[in-house]
Amino acid sequence: MGKPKGSYITIENPYMQVNDPDAHQEVIKVFAEELLKLVPQTSNKEVLVVGLGNVDATPDALGPKVSSKVVVTRHIDEKLPWQIDQSVCQLSSITPSVMGITGIETSEIIKGVVDKIKPDYILVVDALGSRSASRVNTTIQINNTGIEPGAGVGNKRKAITEENMGCPVIAIGVPTVVDAATLVNDMLDHLIQSMLAQAEDQEFYKMLEGLSRKEKYLLVKEVLYPHIGNMFVTPKEIDEVIGYLSNIIANGINIAMHPGITADDINRFKY
What we know:
Helix content: 40-55%
CATH architecture of the largest domain: 3-Layer(aba) Sandwich
CATH class of the largest domain: Alpha Beta
Shape: elongated
Number of domains: 2
Number of helices: 11
Structural class: alpha/beta
């Protein structure tokens, strides 16, 4: 598959992108359970949450918004240790922004923080680019092999991996955009099937059907690129959807990392 060896988990639910609290609670529960398989519960565990992305670009704001919603406790453990117990891990959170704003490689910012606080695990949250329109805003992808910021939109930066950071890296992402070539390719598949059922002369459509998905994608991209460039598309209600998605991811992390914290405790610890 061309991917590093590791664990890859995909959670899919179309109701993540709509206002359905019951469905969101189910996704949060499953997400927390799956996250715990990669970050086991241990006492005195220290976790760093990294929210990748640009908060000023709505489809790319997932990471920063999650980073702002997780319950950070590292400062409480240092200053007010009697306020928390062993069921709450030491969690800190940063939002390194993007290289176009800071002028600094994102991985270098993270590495500097990691060298200072020495976490046991890094949870990296980022918005992704999808190769399927149906997966946009409907899937959570988790792995323990790290992430290359910007890779989904053709703007690769230095990878954030255990090898580069010195501790396990868990990547959490949701596809929030799809490139125009993928969108046209998906529609082309539907068109081919429709024309095979209706057209009298089917040879041309049979030829297209015989192409692999990758071949059709490259063909579409070659035709589109001179006219529209490397365009990416996101749903018009993305600002509302990012709110739902960031709540789901942040609450899943809170439940998994802080099993002793309830919803009533969040206002107590988060200020």
